[in-house]
Each structure stands twice: as structure tokens, then as C-alpha cells.
Amino acid sequence: MKWLSDDKLNHLRSVVSDPDFSATKYTFVKELGRGGMGVVCLAEDRELDRLVAIKVLNTPEDFGDRMIREAQIIARLEHPGIVPIHDVGKLPDGRIFYAMKYVRGNRLDEYAAQGASLRDRLRKFQAVCDAVAFAHAHGVIHRDLKPQNIMIGSFGEVLVLDWGVAKIRDDPRSSAFHQTMEGTVIGTQRYMSPEQARGEIDQLDERSDIYALGAVLYFLLNDLKVSKAAQAISAKATATTKESRYTTASELSADIGRLLDAEPVSAYRENAFERTSRWVGKNRFLVLLVLAYLLMRIFLIFTSRS
Amino acid sequence: MEPDTDIGGPLHRFPDTNHSAIINARSDDSSVRRRAFDTILASYWKPAYKYIRLKWHADNEDAKDLTQGFFASAFEKNYFATYDARKASFQTFLRTCLDGFVANERKAGQRLKRGGDMDHYQLDFAAAEHELAAHASSTLSPEDYFHREWVRWMFTLAVDAFRQRCEETGRVIHFQLFERYDLSDDEVSYASLADDFGLDTTTVNNYLAAARRDFRRIVLEKLREITATDEEFRTEARSLLGVGHP
Q1: Predicted ipTM?
Q2: Does A187 fall in a domain?
Q3: Cα–Cα distance for residue pair A138/A284, rounded to 1 Å
Q4: N or C: fewer beta carbons within 10 Å in chain B?
Q5: Rounded mean pLDDT of chain A?
Q6: Looking at per-residue confidence, does A180 or A185 come out higher?
Q7: What pLDDT, on a 0 to 100 scale, did the predictor assign at position A183?
Q8: Which residues of A touch B185 (CB under 8 A)?
Q9: Phi and psi at residue A159, in whole multiples of 5°?
Q10: Final residue of a structural domain among A101, A127, A144
Q11: Rounded to two decimals, what is the model's pTM?
């Protein structure tokens, strides 16, 4: 018998840990990604003859039924900005999986890296806020919002993915799942609210998602020259204390809308000069027209005197 | 679409508890009990030997005797029938029994000399010793080392069983592809395998996918043999496969 080195052993473990869909209607095609919470695969739905993305969660066995129930709640979120869940089930080894629409396109970070303009980025971000606001209105908190979980589809549509670690608000059993996973912090450090990073699961609410949205906005603005108002929106959303953040994702979306329309935003108090500059910027054509008229009048006055 | 495996059928689920050696170790039928014991012995002797060498600082002769003695005593006294899956995994139970056995033997103050009515198992201690010398434990605790070696041994047995099964079912090429792609230290591509085996790359892809599924099934069958309940099986599966929370 041949000795298996640590590398070979780890390789075989990963080969064997590929989800076994043989008892389902799916055929494994390839792995799309792997993270702390599970693995995402591309699979073929044999009945409907279409490709789907399947997330297989590394959940403790005891929480399987609960996770299925939560996935069913998330599956009821019908919104153009939320990736639809087609199916939820349990693999023979007890792992929970859910099948969702396979979205072709770019992740938000890839989209930004391709040189999207500030206005385009803000419009996409606003669409993300609207999708998250919809989920919040239905009592679902995402908890892992980040550019890698946001897709820009082939037609420019924005889709928020990966609701696998979402929390159902006001459901004590939902939070109990994660309390049991002691020492495990759900989410991604860079986009995680302070209360989430501290593992204060019972403190998580919509404003924890708003922090993550603020961090996503910061990511989108980071490589661009932006106004103080834009910076203030990101800063307010990522305030250390929850009370200082936007109360709802809709409020954040509205502020982004005002920023796009060159209106004053709630996160930033302008001085007179900034107010004038913004007004001038917004009404540039009118200002130019008035200036041209005034110059013409001055010119006419001087020419009539001479 | 990739072809379904012909080992176990297309909708094969996990092996059921009828195949559990842990359950069968409690059987009233001595032949069933004997087979169950042989399965447990085959699955654990090597990690047990290495563990004794490492944790108890036993020399190789002492470790051989202690390993033989432990399993002989376990069979004679039917230790494994007392296992309660609600309290711990079988692996933990066996390790705890082993610690107790070695501690008692050490307390007795004399090296075991097995013989007489004691069973003496044909175990390849030389290979175990060679592995121990060539791949000494790093920074793992003895308990983690035991687990790691058990995982390694389970996969080693599974590779061997997979090879045998492929030979029996006339699917030698599946094993050869698996061996070259997943077990060899050489970097090979599907294209180079296709050239070497006179196949097209799609066939290589399909054969490898089927081989991996069959290998996975064998790993899980082996695991089922040495777990007592579904819950223990699933927990150990996640641990063995390196996913989830063991």
C-alpha cells in the first residue's frame, strides 16, 4: 500500500468532499468557489435541462431542518435584485444545499475594476440597496454583503447572491443556530460590522447590513475622486455605533439618489460655498446661459458707450 | 452528461447501518462478531500502533506487543460491545480504551509477552515503523496525530479497495486514470492522459468523474463500517472529508 503524503491526503479529501448529488435531480459540473460556510458548484438540472448554481452549506447536522426552513423563507423573496432560489434539500451526508439561478456576468468588484464611471457605480449600488431594503422589509438580514456577492448580469441587472447565512429577524431559533457555532464569525471581515465581528449575534439587525453596504460603497468610491457628500454617505453607513448609521437601506438608497441628482444629502451639511458649487454644478447649462447673457449685456453696454 | 457509476447504482445512497462493524460487534453470533472485530482491527491497528509509539514513547517491540495485546484483549473481553454512540465517537472511545489499556499494562510494570491462548494478528508493523521513521509527527498533539493517521489509513484502505473493485469489475482503466491524476506526484493533464491511454479528453473527464464518485462511495462505505449510528456517521464523514464542524 502506497503511503499518502499530507498533500495527497488533502487532495483526496477535497476530491471526496465534492457534493454527491446522485440522489438528486442535479449533476455536478464543476466547483465555482469555496468558502468558510460551504462550497458553490455549477450543476445541471436534469429535469429542466438548465444550469444552476448550488450552494452546499457546511452546517451542523442538528440545524439541517432549520436551515431548510430559512432557505424556504428566503426563496419567497421575489425581487429583481435578489437571486431566485429554485430548490432546497439535503445531501445524503446531511449537508444542506440550495439551488439558485446561475447568473452569468461580472461580480461587482470585477465590474468596478473594468473602469465603470462613478455614476454607473452609484446606480448599481442603489439597486443593491433597494434589493436589501426589500429583504429587510420581509424580515431577512443578509449578513454577508460584499462585492463578491453582488453580480452584474449580462443585461446590466444587479443581483444580490449568497443568502445562505442570512438571518430571519425576530426568529430566536434562527439566531440560535449561529450562537451554537461558538467561535465562528459569520461574514467577511472587511465588510463586517463591529457588532458582527465581535460575534454579538443577538445584536445583529438591518443596520449590520447597512454597515456592509457602506463598506461596499467605500470600495466602489475608493479609486475615484469623489465629493465630500459621497464620502459622508459611506462614513455614515459605516459608523461604529449602529445608532449613528442609516436606519434603513431605503434611506441610504435615497441619499445615493440625491447624490446622483446633485441634491443635498442627509449625511452631509454643506457650507454656503459648497451649496453654491453644487447648485452651479447641477445647473451648469442655466448658469452658462445667464453668464453668456450677462457678458453680452456688458459687451453691448461698453460698445454703445464707445 | 456524465455516466452514472456502475458500482452501487445511479441513485446509491449511503450504506445502511446493517454494515456497521460497531453494531455487529454486539452480535450473539460469534462469527458475525469475529468479522466485525476484524474490520475494526483492520481500520485501527496502524493508527493505534503509531499512537502508542508517539504518546507512550514505547519502543517498536513494546508498541507491537501493546497493539497486539490491546486488540486481543478487546476481542476477548468484548470491549467494543460497550460502546455508546451518544457519549463519544467510536474513534474517541477506542483511543480512550487504548490509553486505559496501555496505562494498566505500564502499571503492571512488565512488558507484555503475548502467546498461549492470545490471538496474534498478522499486521505489517515493519511498514508502520517505516512510515513513522520517514514521516515523523510534526506539532500535532497525540490525539490529533491519532486522528490524522486514522484519516490517512482510511484513505489508504479505500484506495486499495477501490483498486480491487476496479479489477473485479473490469474497470482497470478507471483506476489507472485515478492513480495517475489523483495519486501520482507527477503533474498530468487530461490531454496527456488522453494521449497516454488512447482516449479523447471527454472520455478521460467522464471516467475520472465516475472513478472519483466510486472512490467517494468506498470511503463512505468504510466509514459506515466503523460507525454505529447515522448521526455518528455523518459527523465522522464531515470530519473525514475535512468539511463542516466535526
Answers
A1: 0.80
A2: yes
A3: 42
A4: N
A5: 85
A6: A185
A7: 40
A8: 5, 8
A9: -130, 130
A10: A101
A11: 0.61
